[in-house]
Design brief:
With about 180 residues, the protein is an all-alpha fold. The protein is built from three helices and no strands.
Length: about 180
């Protein structure tokens, strides 16, 4: 390795034979080399770099355009959603108002039907009471009649003798025969 560096160092000591030679000053040669490399890169890389920048610019513009379109679509969807929300809110309010009025109507109908049912039950109760009173009165009459009949039969049996009994039977038979002749 020392031989290689020695050869470069020894080249630096060559006498200049015109305008060609090696400069061993590192700082000045680096600047020259760097400017040459930059010049070559700019000359040959200008087209590639401008193409890369143009492609990047186009992609950014397309992304911005797509974003704007998406933003417009999102705003449009937001407006549609707000319109639907307003419509639904109005319908909900209408249902709420209609619901309250329907509830009031049902409440009045229920009160009226309950009132009618109570009136019918009251009438049924009155009829039942009247029927029971009439039935009780009829039962009392029947018992009174039965007791009166027993008392009359007891009185008749104690007062009637056989002769009176036979005359009563004969009179009743006579009445029945006369009724039979009238109907024929």
């Amino acid at each position: 390795m020392k031989n290689v560096t020695d050869s470069f160092v020894s080249l630096g000591h060559w006498p200049s034979a015109g305008s060609f030679g090696f400069n061993t000053d590192i700082f000045s040669t680096n600047l020259i080399n760097l400017s040459v490399v930059l010049g070559v890169l700019i000359f040959f890389g200008k087209g590639v770099l401008s193409d890369l920048l143009d492609n990047r610019k186009r992609r950014i513009l397309n992304t911005i355009r797509n974003s704007e379109e998406l933003r417009g679509g999102a705003i449009e969807q937001l407006e549609k959603a707000r319109a639907r929300l307003r419509k639904v809110e109005m319908e909900a309010e209408q249902y709420r108002v209609n619901g309250y009025s329907e509830i009031e109507r049902e409440k009045l109908n229920l009160i009226n039907s309950t009132s009618k049912t109570l009136e019918q039950l009251e009438n049924y109760k009155k009829e039942t009471v009247q029927f029971e009173q009439q039935r009780t009165i009829n039962q009392v009459r029947q018992r009174v009649f039965q007791q009166a009949l027993r008392g009359a039969l007891g009185t008749l049996n104690s007062c009637l003798n056989n002769e009176l009994h036979l005359r009563t039977i004969s009179a009743n038979i006579g009445m029945l025969e006369s009724m039979k002749e009238i109907t024929d």
